[in-house]
Prior knowledge:
The structure holds two protein chains of two kinds.
Chain A lengths: L30 H5 L15 E7 L5 E7 L1 H5 L3 E6 H7 L20 E2 L5 E7 L2 H9 L2 E6 L6 H4 L15 E9 L2 H7 L2 E9 L11 E6 L5 E5 L4 H12 L6 E5 L14 H13 L3 E4 L2 H7 L7 E9 L5 E11 L9 H8 L10 E8 L14 H19 L3 H8 L8 E2 L5 E2 L4 H12 L1 H15 L2 E13 L22 E7 L5 E5 L9 H13 L7 E4 L16 H28 L6 E4 L2 E4 L2 E7 H10 L13 E6 L20 E13 L6 E11 L6 H21 L30 E4 L22 H12 L9 E2 L3 H14 L1
Helix pairs in contact in A: 7-8, 10-11, 11-12, 11-19, 15-16, 18-19
Chain B lengths: L5 E4 L13 E2 L16 E3 L4 H11 L3 E4 L5 H6 L7 E4 L9 E4 L2 E5 L4 H6 L1 H6 L1 H6 L6 H6 L2 H7 L5 H8 L3 E6 L2 E6 H4 E3 L2 E2 L6 E8 L6 E8 L6 E11 L5 E9 L6 E2 L1 H7 L6 H8 L16 H24 L5
Parallel strand pairs in B: 1-2, 3-5, 4-5
Antiparallel strand pairs in B: 1-3, 6-7, 7-12, 8-9, 8-12, 10-11, 13-14, 14-15, 15-16
Amino acid sequence: MTTTxxxxxxxxxxxxxxxxxxxxxxxxVEDPRLLVGRGNYIADMKVQGLLHAAILRxxxxxxxxxxxxxxxxxxxxxxxxxxxxxxCKAHMNPCMNFGPPTIAQYPIAVDKVRYxxxxxxxxxxxSRYIAEDGVxxxxxxxxxLPLVTDPKAALEPGAAPLHEEHGSNLxxxxxxxxxxIAAAMADADLVVSDTLHWGRSAGMPMETSGAIARxxxxxxxxxxxxxLNFSYLQFLVAGALKIPSNKLKMQxxxxxxxxxxxxxxxxxxxxxxxxxxxxxxxxxxVEDRLDHLMNSDHHASDRYYEARMGFTKDGxxxxxxxxxxxxxxxYLQFGTGTHGNALSQLTGPYRFRNAxxxxxxxxxxxxxxxxxxxxxxxxxxWVLERLVDQAATKLGLxxxxxxxxxxxxxEEFPYKIPGGxxxxxxxxxxxxxKALGMIDIEHWRKEKARLREEExxxxxxxxxxxxxxxxxxxxxxxxxxxxxxxxxTSSPESATITIDPAGAFQLQLHCQAMWGNSPETVATTVxxxxxxxxxxxxxxxxxxxSRALPGTGPGGSRxxxxxxxxxxGASRKLKKKLIxxxxxxxxxxxxxxxxxxGQVQVVGAPERxxxxxxxxxxxxxxxxxxxxxxxxxxxxxHTYDHPYTTLPAADRSDLGVFYPIMGHACHIAVLEVxxxxxxxxxxxxxxxxxxxxxxxxxxxxxxxxxxxxxxxxSTLYEELVYDAEGQFKSSTFLDYLVPTANEVPxxxxxxxxxxxxxxxxxxxxxxxxGRMVTPSVVSSAIDDALAEYGMHVQQLPVxxxxxxxxVQNARAGQ
Amino acid sequence: MxxxxxxxxxxxxxxxxxxxxDRLVVYRTTIGQAMKPPRFQYRDPDTLADAVALxxxxxxxxxxxxxxxxLMPMLNMRLAAPSVVIDINGVTDLxxxxxxxxxxxxxxxxxxxxxxxxxLIREALPLLARAxxxxxxIENRHRGTVGGSLAHADASAExxxxxxxxxxxxxxxxxxGRREVPAxxxxxxxxxxxxxxxxxxxxxxxxVTPAGAGTAFVEVxxxxxxxxxxxxxxxxxxxxxxxxxxxxxxVAGVASVPLRATDVExxxxxxxxxxxxxxxxxxRVEAAVTTGDDIHATSAYRKHLAATVVSRAVLAAATxxxxxxxx
Lengths: 814, 327
C-alpha cells in the first residue's frame, strides 16, 4: 500500500467539476483586515463617555448572600454605581432560558450564590481600574450552605437543593428506547461494557465575551456585542430587560473566536444592557480571562457513563445501552440540548436498530454548561468508539474490520436511524479507505513492532470512524418534553444582495456570523458562483436587529449550508430581475437569456449582451426603460429555512428529523507514549472528512485542523477542575492548558465528497468535525501503545500521571 | 541623584504629582481597558545607586520590575499590590556578562535569551545554555531576566536549579554594600529568598564548568514551556575507566526549593557509568520529593518523574563527558 493512494473506486466522482469558484482553494476574504490588526473587536470600540464595569465574583460555592456593603466603593472618586442582585430582582426578569422555568438565572446572583465565580456585585466606574478598586472594597457577608460538587451525590436524598423552587438537583430525567434493547443484549455473543467519564473543557477564544451598551435616540438601547444569535433571540434579551423589543437594537461585533463559546452567550450583553439602563450612560463590560474561565457559561459536557454494547461473534453490533449522568453545573440555559446532539447520531456510522439512552442531568455548585464544538455529540462519539475498540480487541478483529462490517452502505441512504433522525447520504468505506491509504497502515504496523523490539519504544495506532452531524433544526429543543415550553420549528438564515447603481455588489448577512470562522468567504463564494463576479469584490456587512431578517447564525455546523441557501435564493430573485430588465432592453424573450461572467447575454449569441453596470443604471435611474410594473432598484432578500426537518412523534418513539445533513470522518493517529513520563508525541496523523461538496478546501481544512487541535486539548490537556470543596482550580492559563503549536501535530487532511441530496450545491456542514473525532482516535492510540500494561482510557483528559500510574501498577504486578 | 528618576502614576491621567521627586511624567495608556493593576507609583532609575536607594527607602512596599514575566500578571490579577514599582530596565550596569578567571558573573538584568546564544556562556557554562530553552517560550526569554528568575525563587524554575547545581553565588546589594550568598542558602523557602527588603539581586556568579565535564538538563512539563513538573540539571566528570569522578545533580519542581540530589551523587561517585546502576541510584531522589498532589501531577507521579529525569540527565551528562563535554 502506498502513501499516495487516491480515493478508491468506491468514492464518488468529484462533484464540483462544474463550478468555477466552489471547490477551489481560495484565500479568505476576511483575512486582509484581520492580518493587519483591523478586526475591530469589542474592546477596540471607542465611545464617548464610556463607563467600565468590573465584577465581584463569589469566592464560595454555595451560600446565602446576607448583606453587601457598597458604601466604601461608592466613596471612591470615579465610581458611578454599584449594582447587586437586588437591582436585578427589582428591575429585571430572569435571563433567557431553554431549561426548566424553575431554574431561573439573573446576570447577578439573586439571594444566593451557586458557584465560585458567580457575579455578586458589579461596580461601574469611569475606568476599569477604578471599577476594580471598587470591587476590592466591597464587603459581602455570606452564610455558607451545604455544597454539592459530585453529581451522583447531588441526586441523593437529602442533598442540598441548588434551586429550592425546582425541588431537587435532578434537572432532567428521561429514558428513550428504540427497538428492543433487552433482546439485543440477550442475543449478543459478546456484551462489552465500560464506565467512562468525559471531563469539562471549553472553547477558549483569545478574545473573551464583551459588550458595550449605549442609550441611544428615541429611547432605543444600543448593544454592541460579540456573542448571541441576536437576530434569532434578541426579543428574549429585551424581555429580560423589561423593554419593548423595538427599543433594543443589537449590533453584532466581530468576534476573534467562539468555537461555540459565544453561541447564545446572553449574560454579558444582558448585564451590560442592564447597567446602561440603570446608569443612563454607555457602559462597557469585557470579561478578563478570570471572568471568562469562571463564569462565561461555556463550560462543556461533564458526563459519567455506564455503557454497554452487544455484538455477534462476527462483530456485528446488536445494540447500544447508555446510562449517562451529566453534571450541568448550577443552571441549565440550553436544557439538555447537548444530548439531542448525541441522539442525532445515536448509532454512529453503524447499522443496528436497538438502542436505549437513559439521561439524568444533575445540578451542582459549578458554572453551568454552554456550547462547545460538537455540542455533546463528540462525547457520544467517544463512548461509541471506546466500546467498538473494546469489542474489536476481544473478538480479535482489526479495528478497521469491525467498523467496516457495521457501516451503513452508500446504497442504503437516506437512512433513518433508531430514534428518528435521518442520515442523508454518505460513503463511509470510501472515507476509511482513503484514510488507511494516506497513512499507509501496514507500514506503521510493521514499524510499531520493530520499534518495540529494537528500540524499546511504545508506538500506538488509533483508528476512529465517527459521524459529523450538521445543520441543526430547532425541533431538537422540544422533543425532550411532552409539553415543551419552547416548541419552535424554525431556524432559518437570510441574505440580502444589493447591486448598487454602479454595478457593485453589497451582501448583507442577518446574524452574528463572524466568529473566527469564514462566513464572508463562504457567502461571497456562493454569490460569485451565481453571478460570475470575483468574491473579493463583494462588500459584506451585518444587519443590526432593527433591520435584520430571520437568522440563526453559526452553530451546529449549519452556517455554510444555510447561508449558501440564503445567498442562492436571493441570487435567483436578483438574477431574474436582471434578466427581465435585459429582456426588455434587448427586446428578446427572458427565456433566451443567461447570466454568464457578470453579463446577461442571448443564449448562443453572447455578443448581444448587457453588463451588470448597464443593467444597474437602468434599474436605478431609468424607470422608463424597465418592464411595465417593475420597481426601481436592485435588491433582493431571501430567507432559507431548514432543508429537511420533521416533528417528533407525540409519544417520542420517534424524535423526528432534526440533524439530517450527516458528515462522516475517519482519523488515524500514530503516536508514541513514554511510559515513564506519560508524555505523548505524534508520529503521523491523518484526518479524512466527508462534508459533502467542499466550498473551499482551504477553509474547511482550517476547520478540521482547529477542531482536531481542540479535540486534542480535551483529550490530553484541558480540564476545568473543581475540587471537593467546590473551589475552581483552573481560573488562569497557568492551570487551564490549551495545546499550542508545540503540542499539535501537523494533521494531514483528506476530503471525500458525498453531496447531500437536500442542500444547495450538496454542501454539508464541517465546522465541528475535527473535535468530534480526535478524542476517540487519541484514546485508542494510547491504549494501543501501552496494551502490554493494560492501558484503557476511561477518563478524559487522560493525564501523564494517569498513564504512568497504569504502567507502574502493571510493573508492580509483574 | 534622584533628578533622573521618572515618576509616573500608573492609573489616573493628570493625577496630582508626588512631591518627592523632581520630574513628573503622566503615563497615558492607550490600552486602559485591558490593564488593571492596583494603583502604584512607578520609578525607573538609570543607575544602580538610585535603584538601591529607592529600594532602601521603600523596603517591602516596593517591588522590582525587571522582565515583568511574573510581576505583571501578579499585578494585573491584583495578587501583588506594591505601593512602588522600581523598574530597573534602565540600569545598564546590570546587563553585563563578564568572565574573571574561573568565574562568570551574569548581571541581574541580563535577558535569559542571551544565555542561549552567548558564546562565552555556551563554552564556560554549557548547563545554562541547555537549561534556558526550557524557560517558558522565546518571547518570555527575550524579556525575562536572570536576576528576575532567581529573585522570584520558583522551585520549578530552571535558573535557580542551575545555580544550585553549579554552586553559584548570588550577589546582593544594599545601601551598606554588597554581600554574596551561596545559591544553596539563597533559596530559603517556598517562593522566598535571602534577599533583605532593602537589597537588590544584582548578579550571579557561576564557577566555570571544568574542561571535559559533561552537562545535561532534562525537564518534563505538561506542555512545552510550562512550569516543570520535574527537571534535573547535571554536571558530571568521568575518568578514563568510565567512572564518575565528580557529579552534581540538581532537581527542580519537586519541593519548596530547588534541591541537590546528594544521595544520588554520593551513591554514584566512583561507580561506573551504567544505565541500570544510574536508574537504581536515581530512585533515591524520590524521598526528597515533597510537592503534594495538584491538578497537573499526583505526588506519586512526581516522585517517579523525579527519578526518571535524574536518571536520564545523569546518563546524558555522562555521555556528554565521554564525548568531551563542551571542549
